[in-house]
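Format notes (please read before filing issues)

Several people have asked whether sequences and structure tokens are stored in separate files. They are not. Every record keeps both together, in the order shown below: the sequence lines, then the token lines. Line labels are part of the format and must not be stripped during preprocessing.
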Amino acid sequence: IKTNDATSDAWTTQFKPAAKKKITLPAIPSESQVGNNWITPLDDNIYVSQLSIPGTHDAATGDGTFFALGQTQELTLDQQFEIGIRAFALRPAVSNGDLILCHGAVATKFNWAQEMERFRYYPSEHPGEFIIAFIRHEDEYDNNNLNWGSIMQGKLESLKAETNPKTNESYTADFKPDRTVGEMRGKILFLCRDWTKYNAGG
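Then the structure lines:
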């Protein structure tokens, strides 16, 4: 907010106090620390929206694809998590009535169950961390299979019903704009890029 001082021609700048919580950054981890649990020491009251969260594009391709042109990552999911990646772009498609992970018309070596086995493992072993998964229907692979929405909904509801043994809460978190780090610990937040076209009435 710029204001003019009536006693001079000078303008002063005043910054309106932020409505959100103060961020206190943790100390740099020691070399002896196992893993890169950079979220764990953060204050519970920090909003997730205040963080710059490192993520990977077509994350599942790091574990291998059936055609090399479709691979965009060199590190596996485990390696990505280990270096601090907490946002993963996933592109599931329908194959034989189930979901597999793809990049365009290229299938990865992961199906949905294998991917979620890893995603359950990370917050179980690192309950101070959380994961954000960006979902996009890879309709190039399955020719826009309209069963994708109902299959995906079933998968997400099934995962939501499971309990993280380290937190005694659901593995998943529902979206809300003021979600805090404390509320997200030990959880997975799924964000879908194109869900509306599968919902009746838009």
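For reference, the curators noted about this record: The longest strand covers residues 98-103. Confidence is low (pLDDT under 50) at residues 11-17.
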